[in-house]
Request: fold
Amino acid sequence: MTHDRRTGGASTAPAIVVEGVEKIFNAGSADEVLAVEGINLAIQPGEFVSLIGPSGCGKSTLLRLVGDLLAPTRGTVSVFGKSAHQARLDQDYGMVFQHAGLFDWRRVAANIELPLELRGWSKADRTERSAQMLDLVKLPDFGRHYPRQLSGGMQQRVAIARALSFEPRLLLMDEPFGALDEMTREHMQLELLRIWRETGTTVVFVTHSISESAFLSNRVVVLSPRPGRIHSVVEVDLGDRDDDTREDPEYFAKETEIRETLRAVEDGA
Amino acid sequence: MMRWGRMLRVAATVLVAVGLLIGVWEGYKWMGGATDGTWPGTSIDLPTSTDDLTMPHAADIVGELFEEVRDGRNRLPMAVFLLKKAWFTLQEAAIGFSLGLAIGLGLAVLMLRWRVAERGLLPWINVSQTVPLIALAPIIVTWGRQQDLPDLLSISLIATYLTFFPVAVSALRGLQSPDPTHVELMRSYAAPWRTTLFKLRLPAARVYLFPALKIASTLSVVGAIVGEISIGTKTGLGRAILEFAQRYAVSPERLYASVVGAAVLGLTVFGLVALAERLTVTRTHGTVEEAR
Reply:
């Protein structure tokens, strides 16, 4: 099943290896900030890993270091056996942010096709793929709409479709459901898990929601407050999840475990 | 169908506005006549005298458009005469506007690409607009004539000088307007700078650019008219205004009629830009209920 994918054998090379990474913003000036330090983390292919921690702990920074949107001050990030920089140039990343970040002037289908356009796909291939992706995120009739005609949840699904359209090997998500209401969020979580199962992509997921991290992940990485360090890693083994999982005692137990870890982190333990 | 309804509404609005303007004009004139040039019930003088020389009747101004005037050896109705002159001025304005658009956009992209350029150029771009046009126009024309440039082009350059400024400032702001996550997204696609410019920054800048283009379009007409007046061309709307101004005491309606002509020209170019905006910037408002 899904959670077995990461334990597919010791021979599998990790998807992401973060070694001794430190990030200092505005190094050398008066407003210098040490955002994260001493980060060591390995993520297996097909794994779903959440980063959680108090606000300002550097979880988004860590995500951006993995995605080569930021360069580490110290340490190395390798992705699929190459540098994060090379992985970005090879367009291995799909990114989803808290706000859908669709281009207002492009129709929904054209938004999904943007990364394909940049890769030089033909018009026919792009149209076919964007139709497939709209089916995948359950918005088959909205290709001709403009983003602003869609609700927040629908826009976020388009953003996910855009990120998945070119079948990236790695999906980086920065609080993608943070701006959604509770009902929509739970719905989207199930959709994301379904898509993850169907595509087998590796996911790094930043969140500040304890229940979300427990519900979605194989592993939850708990970061300490600034400067962000990895405090502990909570293994979550809930099998295939559905709406019933939310009422599963095992799930509650994991949620409690993560919550207590976070409390310990905030108390400076 | 919607379109026609919309156009009718616009036409009605324009008619009502013109009607109101004429109403205020004639009402003020009538009041001045009735009170012998003072505010009713006081002895305070009205700011403007209301006699026919200072304020001709609206009907006379409109009527003047159909009176014949001399144009070289021909005699033409005033309206046709003004249209001919306006056509010349429109060409100057159009060239000036296009050049101003190109230069303004070019400067904005330059300033976007290199922050050094922004720091170095922006103050000069601001200073450029403090030089009075009346002083600048003869200089441009003198230089132009030395280079055997036709006066039409020299005047266009004067219009350019006025138009590039709002374009440069607003385009820079528009190019810088995309959300950081949009820029990060393009970065995650490993998109080169040029691709980000064409796929993200320029489309995003349109919302900022078009209001500035509307200002620039009317400025280009102002620039062309002032340019004509200050260098003394033989044709153009500016020339006509200058001539009618000199004969104001004899027939004030003519100057007013030519001012109406200039206003119509300004509104025309403004309308063209507004139309371009409508065609280019998609209007995408409204929401649909989340379908579950």
